[in-house]
Amino acid sequence: MKENKYQFPVIAKWVVSIIIIAIVLYGIWYFRFLVGCIAISIVLSFIGRPLIKLLGKIHYNKLHIGNIPSTIITLTTLIGVIFLLIYTLVPMIISQAMSFANIDIYQIADYYAGPIKSIENFLYEYHIMASNTNLETLISNKILNMFQIFQINDMADVLLEFGTSIIMGFFIVVFITFFLLKDAHLLYNFIMGVTPDEHIEEIDRIITNTRSLISRYFIGISIEILVMISLFSIGFYIVGFSNVILIASICGTMVILPYIGVIIGGLMGLIITITGYLSIDPAIDILPIIVNFVIVFGIVKLIDDFVLQPFIYSKSVKAHPLEIFLVIIMAGEIGGVVGMILAIPTYTFLRIIGKEFFSQWKIVQSITKGI
């Protein structure tokens, strides 16, 4: 009798696995707020772990800092840094938003009417733009629509709408982070507790490698952000820009998005710089401002490209730059800015899983050989 090539147990196993994965993914989406809080807590625990280890080594004779005091000190330090950033940046952001709201778009359009008309004629001549389209009106409307997000009423509505979620999220993150810092093996023990016995060794290696690589990545990226903000602040201060801390913070923070971050951060920083000057003097010549910004941004970015990033990425994720670029683009399509921020850690984690469970595949061998 001919053997049936369709083995029901195997098919049933795949069907059940797919259903379970679908349920898990739906659960992650449905509880995305809580999942986001847990993710933030895990990141903070990765960043705070070295400080706890350092505090644990401090002792005087028989006196030493216990686990709970070390955890409290570390968590307090992390919260203090976050609140210091908020305390420093929020007033600047509000001030900049008010400057945006006070810009006279029509006065600026009148001042640059000549260059705009020349560009408009060029677009007409080569049939790039329809002849019945007024470029000046088009630009003015686009800018007005963009600046509407900075209206005070809209900002108040947004703050009121998300205020409760922010407060709730803060306490959830603090609570979870405390126990992740206090019990270093809490997450490890939970994962191992739900892992089938036949996969204990593989999961143990995955957790060990993930903890090492991602911890180094987040610590490295935090150092890179601080260095970049410092360099941008110095550079923008030298060329005479105002509100340098806010501009430097935006440009420096965007380095968490490799390759794409330079474009986003550069454009956002340049827009804030230009609009800050235009809110004071709509007739100001913006060309020298753009030139100074590009020079400072270019120098700092070169330092980042040739000094900071090679050290951080070669020592952490160990992935080809093209891999990172494509992963970030795809993550951005799926999850926007948040997806781009989580792209590299998630990709690193998936590579480690692939190395343990799918090492027989050539493609997996290719992308995991550096791990």
Which features does this protein show?
single chain; 371 residues; mainly alpha; two-stranded antiparallel ribbon; globular
Concise overview:
With 371 residues, this protein is mostly helical. The chain has helices spanning 8-30, 32-57, 67-101, 105-111, 113-125, 135-147, 152-182, 186-193, 200-238, 244-253, 260-278, 287-315, 321-357, 362-368; strands spanning 59-60, 63-64.
Q: Could you describe the 3D structure shown?
A:
This protein has a domain at 15-184. Helices cover 80% and strands 1% of the residues. It is built from 14 helices and 2 strands. It has helices at 8-30, 32-57, 67-101, 105-111, 113-125, 135-147, 152-182, 186-193, 200-238, 244-253, 260-278, 287-315, 321-357, 362-368, and strands at residues 59-60, 63-64. It has a two-stranded antiparallel ribbon with strand order 1-2. Strand 1 (59-60) and strand 2 form a beta hairpin. It is globular. It starts with 7 loop residues before the first helix and ends with a helix. The mean pLDDT is 77.
Layout of helices and strands:
Layout: H1 8-30, H2 32-57, E1 59-60, E2 63-64, H3 67-101, H4 105-111, H5 113-125, H6 135-147, H7 152-182, H8 186-193, H9 200-238, H10 244-253, H11 260-278, H12 287-315, H13 321-357, H14 362-368
